[in-house]
Specification:
alpha/beta; globular; 145 residues
Amino acid sequence: MKKIYNKITNYDIPSDYHIIDTSSETITWKIFVSASEFEQSLLIELLNRILTALNIKINENGEIIKTNPNLIYTIPKAKNQKSCKIICFGILPEQLQLQGFNEKYSIYHFQNNTFLFVDNLVNYSNESSKKILWNALKKMKENEA
């Protein structure tokens, strides 16, 4: 007689989900940045230069979301959702419950949103890394509706 065993797998389910609202009529850019990088003035200065170059104004057409690497963020699909550009500095696609978005500096479209996953701000300390970032941001900006 053959014995059958049930295999039990334990999964860590995050206790804290943060829902990201993309239904605003005016906010068309969401910028995910590690909360720890906000403690470093040079990185905030770099972020401000990026936002200025993209013509993103916080609380007008853009919003910064300070992230924690241990949390999961949810972007619910809304009916008649307005298009939103989402730049993820150092956040993994899995943290947004997305799969198949693994190539950094590539533009992804999903549920009427446009995503760009890039490294943490701290990684853009030299001109060559800044150029790679800028080329991806420029491509995203060109695809703006």
